[in-house]
Amino acid sequence: MTQKPIRKAVFPVGGLGTRFLPATKAMPKEMLPVVDKPLIQYAVDEAREAGIEQMIFVTGRGKSAIEDHFDISYELETTMSDRGKSLDAIESTRFAPGDVVYVRQQEAIGLGHAIWCARHIVGDEPFAIFLPDELMVDSPGCMKQMVEAYARVGGNIVCGYEVPADQTDKYGIITPGKVDGPLVEVTGLVEKPPRGTAPSNLMIPGRYILQPEVMRVLEGQARGAGNEIQLTDAMAQMIGTQPFHAYKFGGRRFDCGDKAGFITANIALALDREDIGATVRAFIAEL
Ligand code: UTP
What we know:
The N and C termini lie far apart (55 Å). Helix 9 packs across helix 10. The protein has one domain: Spore Coat Polysaccharide Biosynthesis Protein SpsA, Chain A. The chain is an alpha/beta fold. The model has no long low-confidence stretch (mean pLDDT 95). The protein contains ten helices and 14 strands. The protein is 30% helix and 24% strand. The structure holds uridine 5'-triphosphate. The site of uridine 5'-triphosphate (UTP) has 22 residues, from helix 4.
């Protein structure tokens, strides 16, 4: 079966990041660095690896640092070049004109609403969504694995990740159907189910491949959990009308919107690094 390729990705970055105050008062959560790279850059690199060409950022007030990050910094680049320094470290921040697009979510009233704000740019083609505060670590990357699964089954694919049963009330949770290797049929979805009511412990960690019809569903979407317009509720309505699968991700996942998750990610990725791994390992051993 030939599927329409996934050429566009939406990065909703309009959230307020209240769990990370005061760090996120004037700085976007997505610019927090894990070792030496901002969270948003990890997500964009993962998208590029998966063959995605156009990056669509749904921003809000106070998020202009993200636009500057993916722009040319003349002063920095000229000064570094004059001093004979390599620009390799900022190579991945460069894009051809038109390949990064920004749209403003004027009010942070939910992830579903943020995605809907990108409807005119997404147009009539399937697209990917990345929540950049979820850091997914694997090789090949999470979205590349999902795109490969999409080439086989098409339709809608969300990432699936198992969490302990006492954490299911924090996430969008999948009701699983037939299992075929890492692909699990999705027969239902529920956002933040109250404790003891979750249909499984398979949550959706911020990676999605969706068909454009979701925009039409979001159009009339009422507010759900937390009084926000929920993407999970819109996706749930598409089950049964289009193929819907979860791809069980076997790599590492860090919730960097959470302080403990962010610190854990920094330690884990620092330990992986050739340049600083040994120093950090020695320090942890000493502790
Ligand atoms: P979160 O639930 O992490 O919310 O949003 P948040 O506002 O970013 O952070 P906290 O909970 O207050 O600390 C999940 C994703 O959805 C985006 C966020 O930017 C994040 O990528 N989002 C959420 C929006 O873009 N707009 C919204 O209205 C809500």
